[in-house]
Amino acid sequence: MKCGLSLAAVVALLALLLSSSQAQQQDTQCNTTVKADIMMLVDGSWSIGRHNFKTMRNFIARMVSVFDIGPDRVQIGLAQYSGDPKTEWHLNAHSTKESLLNAVANFPYKGGNTMTGMALNHILQYNFKPNVGLRPDSHKIGILITDGKSQDEVILTSQNLRDSGIELYSIGVKNADENELRSIASDPDDIHMYNVYDFKFLVDIIDELSVNLCNSVKGSGHTLEAPTNLVTSEVTESSFRATWTPPNGTVEKYHVTYMMTAGERIEELLVNGSVSTVVLENLNPLTEYVINVYAVIGKRSSEPLRGTETTRDG
């Protein structure tokens, strides 16, 4: 017995598949009028190899293709690093998606060592700058892609980026160090940190990553600007005052945590957003304390402003 489909049924099925494909394409687009400045930092060390580097370029192309590119929308720059970082193009270099995708397809493989800390400092010092396209009213995002453990310090340099209001994503492949990726990425890790076993598995994270990046661009989950300039004063054997400079804009409250440097118990205080100072009391004499101050709006909080102080001898 033979079984077949009529011509009309075949046409209807093809139309349904085409409609589904078009809808899926539309769903993956990040439709927003919000401005965002995204700087990509790509590991070009020898351990990657030319074949994997091509795979990584394809991954980057898919990542950036979801955005509406333009001087009044999303701008994307890229730096490649190994022993030393190199800006491939600045934020304001490509004003159309076509131009940007052409640049992604053609930037060359660099080769060298894995100096991630130096590269993170490079994008802060040379790429996130107004003279090369950074806009004061944009959401600022950095995306690191690396296949190995850094050969230099990354904790302080990544903290400097986050303290500057830059939301950081870290994407690790193959031999990347997961603890290092976590130390670089903004919180929470389940949104900002990815680690895959091989370059061919990058395709498995592209959809989730694109959604999270789009939310960051729109502002959903975007890291708040942190307070700055933590100063301690009025130090006694059992208390001291902590004062900070508020971030720009409105803050609902501040979440202040403090603990002994050698201890495990964390104490917490909530301070009204209109106040930028608090006295920490009932402390032990001649003891060093670590203080963290977070700006809070709703369920969102900034990266911490950190400092230390030692109480007087009783």
UniProtKB/TrEMBL annotation:
Domain Fibronectin type-III, first and last residues per copy: 226-314
Keyword list, A-Z: Collagen, Extracellular matrix, Glycoprotein, Repeat, Secreted, Signal
Domain VWFA positions: 37-209
Key word Signal present: yes
Annotated signal sequence range: 1-23
Organism expressing this protein natively: Oreochromis aureus
Pfam family, one: VWA
InterPro entries, per the entry: ECM_Assembly_Org, FN3_dom, FN3_sf, Ig-like_fold, VWF_A, vWFA_dom_sf
Superkingdom field: Eukaryota
CDD domains (UniProt xref): FN3 (cd00063), vWA_collagen_alphaI-XII-like (cd01482)
A GO-annotated cellular component: extracellular space
Gene: TUBG1
One BP term from GO: endodermal cell differentiation
Gene3D superfamilies reported in the protein's UniProt record: Immunoglobulins, von Willebrand factor, type A domain
Protein name, entry field: Collagen, type XII, alpha 1b
Localization in the cell: Secreted, Extracellular space, Extracellular matrix
